[in-house]
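Lecture 7 notes: from sequence to structure.

We start with a single chain of 514 residues. Read the sequence below before looking at the structure.
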Amino acid sequence: MDRFLEIVASINGVINNAVWGLPGLILLIGTGILLTVGTKVFQIGHIGHWWKNTIASVFKKDSKATKKTDKKTISQFQALCAALAATIGTGNIAGVAAAIVTGGPGAVFWMWVAAFFGMMTNFSENLLGIYYRRRNADGEWSGGPMYYLRDGLGKRYGKKWLKIPANVLAVLFCCFAILASFGIGNMAQINKIVLNMDAAFFSSASLGNIPGTEINIIHLIIGLCLLAIAALIIIGGLQRIARFAEIVVPFMAVIYVIGSLVIFCINIDMVGPMFAAIFKFAFTPAAMLGGGIGVLIKKTMTQGFKRGVFSNEAGLGSSVLVHSSSNVKEPVKQGMWGIFEVFFDTFVVCTMTAVVVLSTGFIDLSTGSPIGTINGDTLVSEAFGKYFGAPGTWFIAIAMLFFAFTTVLGWSQYGSKAVEYLFGSKGVKVYKVIFVVMIVSGAVMEGGLAWDLSDTFNGLMMIPNLIGVIALLPLVLKITKNYVDRKIKHKDVEPILSYDPEIQAETAAHLDED
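Now the structure, written as tokens:
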């Protein structure tokens, strides 16, 4: 058995290095650059427009962005919160800290670069998700990479030979999404919650293990509590997940940002050296890592790119599975919510983590190397504890609890939509039961192979997704130009809203409600 696990780990290591190494990251960043250039840098050129039509619209009286049009949909803001619930997780706190420890302060710069181009990748995914979505048997919207692979790549170019590979890619995406939902989207997050809660609140009250097993009793109790709460929310479907996310995600994110800003203000004299180190070590990494300068820059870039992508998921096609359930009529409008999602996740939340790590003395800003032996997983907790005492440590444990738990809820929806595509609505009920039960497994199990495998499946999702996005680039540009002509240049042209003539006609008739 041990020999078998070694072989699995070895094979997984090769695949993981390809997916999350330079080949995969070049594909990912390259796609973002292609989309950015193709849309004429939409994220900058129309920044006022997408800002006004996304987060700014939430604060307007009688805003349509916060209201549902029927019981089978969720509002645009709920779609954003549900997507952020899945993306804002342990990666935004422990993950960013670990990237800085491994790749130096320069990793933050490359994280920003990945997010800048990722804005347009996420924009294009969500645009295609809305354009190719359809109603399922329960009357709910269903959309995602599998649909724009099958109905877009497989049919748009009129090539019969494309249908089979397009369908295969759609199925592969769903399989990878389901597997990733159990690993990165469930057990890995729950495991982080349990370990942080145990360390913060129960370290002096250990109950030991269940007799005859290696199962920690406290871990099991926490896992069972999380299972009960998750079951009440997940079984209730997307509407219940969206309502929960709509309350928790903005609240916890704002509190975390405020806490980080307090630390930043305390260390305001570090702002110059901190940003100088970020830009300096982006191109001249710390010599203490050893090796040639080219190898060091590659390591720093890889850490920054990987952390940025792993945090905001732009390019994986995952958040499209939730965004497609929005009540929005315009594909481009939901695409703009995708731009804001990446902006908030990386440029705000991840940057706040970087500020905390770099301004609190754990990293030597003159050399870019860690001071002493530090653990990236607990670095932010130590930083908050340094300035706020025990309550600071407790706060990070609670923040990790909510961020990671909402990630679990978001990924349950991702997996549900993938299962629905493969097995229909009846399969979703079975999937949800299995998904909820797996929460206990995540609470009590140990070992890294399961996490490494799920990390690989998470990355494998991007390959079929990006093939579809690149192949449909002309359509993305066409729909975007149509929107700009109508909404910004005020030209009298017919809207492009759906691949399906019936949905196109129905949606166009109610376009003024958007």
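Residues 2-513 form a domain with the Amino acid/polyamine transporter I fold (CATH 1.20.1740). Keep this in mind for problem set 3.
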